[in-house]
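hiii, so i know i said id send this last week but things got crazy w the move. better late than never?? heres the sequnce for the chain we talked about at the cafe, plus the structure i predicted for it. fair warning i was half asleep when i ran it
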Amino acid sequence: MYAMERQQGIERILADEGRVSVVDLAQRFEVTTETIRRDLASLEEIGSLVRVHGGAVAKDDDSTNESSVLERVQQHGPAKRAIAVRALEALGTDFRGSVFIDAGTTAAAVADALSARVTAAPQGSRTRVEAVTHSLTIAPVLAVAEGISLTVIGGRIRGVTAAAVGAETVATIGRLRPDVAFIGANGISAGFGLSTPDPEEASVKAAIVRAARRVILVADSSKHDRELLVSFASLREIDVLVTDAEPSAELAADLADADVEVWIA
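okay and structure toks below
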């Protein structure tokens, strides 16, 4: 196979899967890893991809790229709903306490599932949940649910995520101690931990992680082995990862070393 044909094949795989690894490509094309690295370098030069540790990602999937909340709500919907239902098992059946729900579409699925769960409980046995969020898209879902008392954290609203950010938001979160936080991430990796493209979003997420007694990370498998611009927490700062597929061997090993439980939805 000529180099051009192989590189076109790499571009097709990248378009389908969003990320490629050097080792996997070498096996697929039956060439050496050095040959694949040269192919990736050539493709990066012409702007077809961005090289990352161990492989490459699509050009629009680099460390600063971030889709809007309206775009992301259409992606991985069934997986996010399954993750949300599984994540709520962390609360048990008779939970009475406080939860912080982060911004983001997977966290929004948690809010939807929590609202449905509380509303569906018999009137006499309905528990009271104190919920906190800084997301303008999640707040209305929680506000109308009987059995949920809602606090909305204010601040400057970031349009891409419809979430409050800034020093005021971080300071307010620092005065809270929720029992459980459901937090999202744009990337989770062995070496870099949890990451997101925006520094202000990272500051808010870091504050949530510090504040909560227990941290539940909800992230579908498209976030595995990704490293965005800003790390906001190490793996050791989370208690449970709820996802829809087994992590890679390297990530699984680091999660185990960090004593993180992995729940597959």
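btw Confidence is low (pLDDT under 50) at residues 68-75. thought thatd interest u
miss u guys!!
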